[in-house]
Amino acid sequence: MNSSLSSRQARPFPAQRVLARLLPLLARAAVAVIIIALLVPVVVVILLSFSAESFIQFPPKAWGFRQYAAITQSDVWIDAVLLSVKVAAPSAAIAVVVGTLAAFAITRTSMRGRSVIQALGLGSLIIPSSAYAVALYGVFEKLNLLGTFWGLVAIDSMLALPVVLLLVTAAIDQVPRQLELTAMSLGARRLRVGAEITLRLVAPSLVAATIFSFVLSFDESVFVIFLGGGLSTLPAAIYAAVTVGLDPVITAIASALMLATGLVLALGLIVRGKDR
Amino acid sequence: MSEPSTTHPTKRTDAPEADGHLRLVNVTKHFGKVTAVRGIHLAVRRGELMTLLGPSGSGKTTLLRMIAGYETVTDGSIDVDGVDLSALAPWLRNIGVVAQQYSLFPHLTVAKNIAYGLAKRRWPRQQRTSRVDEMLDLVRLHGLGDRYPWQLSGGQQQRVALARALAFRPTLLLMDEPLGALDRQLRVDMTEEIRRLHRELGTTIVYVTHDRDEALALSDRVTVMRDGLIVESDTPQQLFAQPASAFVARFFGDARIIPTAVLAKQLVDHGVMLRSASGPIPLGVATQDASSEIAILPHALSQVRSGNAHLELEIDVKDYQFYGDTVRVTGLLAGYPVIARMPQDRLSGRQIGPTRFYADPADLVVVHPDPPDSPAETVSATTQSPSGAQPNNDVPTGTRRR
User: Fold this and answer.
1) pLDDT tens for residues B346-377?
2) Which of A62, A69, B74, B359 counts the highest number of beta carbons within 10 A?
3) Tens-place pLDDT, residues B98-156
4) Residues in chain B within 8 Å Cβ distance of A182
């Protein structure tokens, strides 16, 4: 009886055996397809950015840096990059300050409505952005914020808030309460403990949150098109350029943007990694 | 702060005294519907090292946290030298705290950790550095001021925590299971270290632990807590040899409890004088209280008859366990489990089954039974480990015996 049991375990039914071998293969194939589908357009755009032609054609007949040169020759693109930076900087700052304060309230107080703050803070992650943008249009019109710089800042800081909340609450949760209590017993008031101990220990996560917020705002394209009223941040400028016609300079801008974003996000991950 | 420590006081202190340095009056703590601490009265003398001992859930840590100001007091008052603490925020209390772990600031060097309390009190820089050096010498970490906490061993970290808590000359030092995270040898070394610091500085210390051996070795006085109440508060010697309650006899002395009437049936001479916390009492008198119980301390029993050990008892021996300096014998006395611990030379043999034992009647202690509302089987895991062996720190003491 013992031997029959073990032989059955050793030799499962043929169908089961085939399935057991096939499933991991299928899963890997699916992952490969997804990665290729994501990567192919990226690779194509990067290849196209080194085309030396005045229209988009794949594969390009001649190679060169013509598209990259074109970026620097036009004020449109430089102005767009500058405006994006000008919007992203205050947006990131506001998101990090507000988000960090909210994170403290959520993790370190017994305030009523903590969970409401948390849910609302994460809200913009859940609502589809186009629906959100349409709804905000009415609000912005009433407040005369349509097409204004600070209107954009307001939207972008709100969009970045969930990232800050998630990163900073997770980081504060890692700080042992005992450290804060000990600091108090040593004579530090509550705010001092928050600044000298808790904030100091989550500083790497604050840097990461700032970088992520900045990138999020810099890259934001949906709301600026709905509510920006012609304010030409980089994504808006790219969109405008694409709707008019296919200027191959777009491929160079897109490539540069991907490179810059990738580098900055990697930096953010490294800084945050040091926190662990 | 450093007035001379009174030589370790040994007189009994059950009630708050007028000269108490730290006084707790009717201190009570509710967490929602749960009552963690039920009207505690306690006085700690200046320079005393008092241990709060009890299983987890007994309220000892809550009591400590209320003294530190980490928790508010639901009812009652806590004062130090007549100053009510309840109005003071934790940072104004001038109380040093050493916690079990996670207590050093990881982003500060050892020296800056120690100086933290001094900086908050705005000590001038020069005094700060000299005090830090002084504290480093005191805890024998000279020259390690520039290290970061992660570069130190667990024992060294706790010594830094101790130095930091003492640096600003607190009126009171609270220690919450400071040795709990250390291994056995380090615990023994640190026990010695804490006693030395206490001797040298004379700081009043309130020390929380669930470890009986730690409490025995460290304390001037031990306050045993259970279910948010004080069971007994006395010197370790007194609690060990002459407990007043069955709970303390079990928890502190590793004793086993039998009803007095059962013992009386075993003995012919009812005039024999037994011990009790309120003085010697004849067996016959103790038997008159039907609920009275006898604690049989492990060292009370011997297999060899000697001067004082003359009471004959028959014990049904189940097993002998060898612990190096002593042998632990488990068995039944009239159906009740008992434990005997004796050196080899008081062992007549290793026979299993009914065996004759001799007891010194002065080591049979008449105790108050456990209150009926708290189940008698509430014994910490520590209690069951023989006193010479390492108490098992990994087992939470709240584990109810089943």
Assistant:
1) 888 788 889 999 998 888 899 988 876 544 43
2) B359
3) 998 878 999 999 999 999 999 999 999 999 999 999 999 999 999 999 999 999 998 89
4) 97, 99, 103
Q: What is the DSSP string of B17-60?
A: -TT-SEEEEEEEEEETTEEEEEEEEEEE-TT-EEEEE--TTSSH
Low-confidence ranges of chain A (pLDDT < 50): 1-8, 276
Q: For residue A249, tell me if it sits in a domain.
A: yes
Q: What is the pLDDT of residues B262-302, one digit of tens each?
A: 888 888 777 888 888 888 888 888 888 888 899 999 888 88
Phi, psi of B19 (to 5 degrees): -90, 15
Whether residues B91 and A186 touch (CB distance < 8 A) is answered with yes
Q: Are residues A179 and B91, on separate chains, in Cβ contact within 8 Å? A: no
CA distances from B347 to A196, B269, B297, B308, B355 (A): 63, 25, 17, 16, 11
The type of residue at B87 is A
Could you tell me the CATH number of the domain that includes residue A104? 1.10.3720.10
Of B36, B43, B56, give the one whose Cα is nearest residue B13: B43
**Is A33 a domain residue?**
yes
* Listed residue (B46, B52, B43) closest to B7, CA to CA: B46
Q: Which residues of B touch A188 (CB under 8 A)?
A: 91, 116, 120
- Count of domains observed in chain A: 2
- What's the angle, vertex CA A222, arms to CA A217 and CA A225, rounded to 5? 105
Whole-angstrom Cα distance, residue A180 to residue A106? 16
Residue A225 inside a domain? The answer is yes
CB proximity B89 to A under 8 Å? yes
Beta strand extents in B263-375 (DSSP E only): 273-276, 281-282, 293-296, 301-302, 311-322, 327-333, 336-342, 353-359, 364-367
Concatenate the DSSP letters of all residues of B147-216 into one string.
Answer: S-GGGS-HHHHHHHHHHHHHHT--SEEEEESTTTTS-HHHHHHHHHHHHHHHHHH--EEEEEES-HHHHH
Interface predicted TM-score (ipTM) of this complex, two decimals:
0.78
DSSP code at position B98: E
Mutate to test the interface with B, among A108, A180, A181, A182 (most CBs of B within 10 A): A182
CA atoms within 13 Å, Cβ hemisphere of A175? 30
CB contact under 8 A, A178 and B90: no
Q: Which of residues 39-78 of B touch A (CB under 8 A)?
A: 68-70
Q: Are B55 and B226 in contact (CB under 8 A)?
A: yes
Statement to judge: residues A82 and A218 lie in one domain? yes
CB B163, CB B117: distance < 8 Å: no
Helices A14-49 and A249-275: angle between axes, nearest 10 degrees: 120
Same domain as A245, residue A210: yes
* Crossing angle between the packed helical segments A149-174 and A75-108, to the nearest 10 degrees: 40
Interface check for B107 against chain A (CB to CB < 8 A): the answer is yes
Do both A20 and A141 map to the same domain? Answer: no
User: SS3 of A163, please?
Assistant: helix
Indicate the SS3 state at residue B273. Answer: strand
Domain extent for A241: 74-273
Do A88 and A167 sit in the same domain of this protein? yes
* Percent of chain B surpassing pLDDT 90: 51
Q: What is the pLDDT of residue B390?
A: 38
Q: Are residues A15 and A135 in the same domain?
A: no
Contacts of A184 in chain B (CB under 8 A): 69-70, 89-91
Residue A16 included in any domain: yes
Which residue do the tokens 């004959």 mark? B312
How far is it, in rounded angstroms, from Cα B381 to Cα B397?
5
Q: For residues B77 and B67, what is the distance between their CA atoms, to the nearest angstrom? A: 10
Q: Do A157 and A233 fall within a single domain? A: yes
